[in-house]
Each structure stands twice: as structure tokens, then as C-alpha cells.
Amino acid sequence: VQLQASGGGLVQAGGSLRLSCAASGFTLDYYAIGWFRQAPGKEREGVSCISGSGGSAYYADSVKGRFTISRDNAKNTVYLQMSSLKPGDTAVYYCAAVPAGPDTIVGVTTTQGYDYWGQGTLVTVSS
Q: What averages of pLDDT result for each successive group of 10 residues across the chain (127 residues)?
């Protein structure tokens, strides 16, 4: 079971990036997915999560209206489209997975709900 996060990079404030979380060794359909981020010197915080079917999603207040989570189960991949990026969004972004029903989202207020983690991808937003 592996998750591979990618798509990070350097972008100017106001710009956009799309992160991908590709799964291998298991089928994402039966897993809830969360995105977390960790800025230097700070604790890991939850950003967004989505149910196995893609029908339910949650966003932290700090990213609501700017980030969109989606999934393509045929490609075994979950995406995080990030727009109107701010310097405060600079962090290593991680995706995580946990087995769940198709309409279940697993909260990202804590990392404890997730079993499998990707290696992280760095997003740097310059002012």
C-alpha cells in the first residue's frame, strides 16, 4: 500500500497548483482520503478530505473557497486544486488514506484517523 503525492513547486502569491495523490497496491474506491500540510516549525494540520465515492468533502476554513478536492477512482488518484495561493499556504503537503464506506469522510482535525501516508510534496508560495 503506497501513496505518492506530487505536483508541488514554487508559485507566486495568487497563483495555482494542482497536487496529485496516486495510490498503488490498493483500490482507492474504498478509502477516504485526506490532505494535510505541515509548515516549518508547525504541527501538521488538516486541509481537506473526501469520501470514497467523491460525494462528500470537507475543507478547513483557511482554504475554503480556494482549494478543491476531487478524485478519479479510475486513475486511482485524488487531486487537490489550489488557487489564490498565499504565502501562508507554504508547507509540505501530505495525502493520507483510511478504509471507509463510500460516503464516509474522515475528519482531518487530527492525523489519528488515517492509516496510510504519502511522502509529502513541497509547496512554496512567494510574496
A: 95 98 90 96 96 94 97 95 98 96 89 93 97
Q: Are 66 and 9 in contact (CB under 8 A)?
A: no
Q: Compute the distance between CA of residue 67 and CA of residue 90 in angstroms, rounded to an integer.
A: 14
Question: What pLDDT, on the 0 to 100 scale, is given for residue 29?
Answer: 86
Residues 74, 108: Cα–Cα separation, whole Å: 24
User: Any residues with CB less than 8 A from the CB of 3 and at least 6 apart, and which?
Assistant: 21, 22, 23, 95, 96, 97, 116, 117, 118, 119
**What's the confidence (pLDDT) of residue 9?**
98
- How far apart, in whole angstroms, are the C-alpha atoms of residue 10 and residue 74? 29
CA–CA separation, 14 vs 103, rounded Å? 33
Q: 35-72 as b/e, with b when 16 or more CB fall inside 10 Å?
A: bbbeeeeeebbbbbbbbbebeeebbbeebeeebbbebe
DSSP 110: S
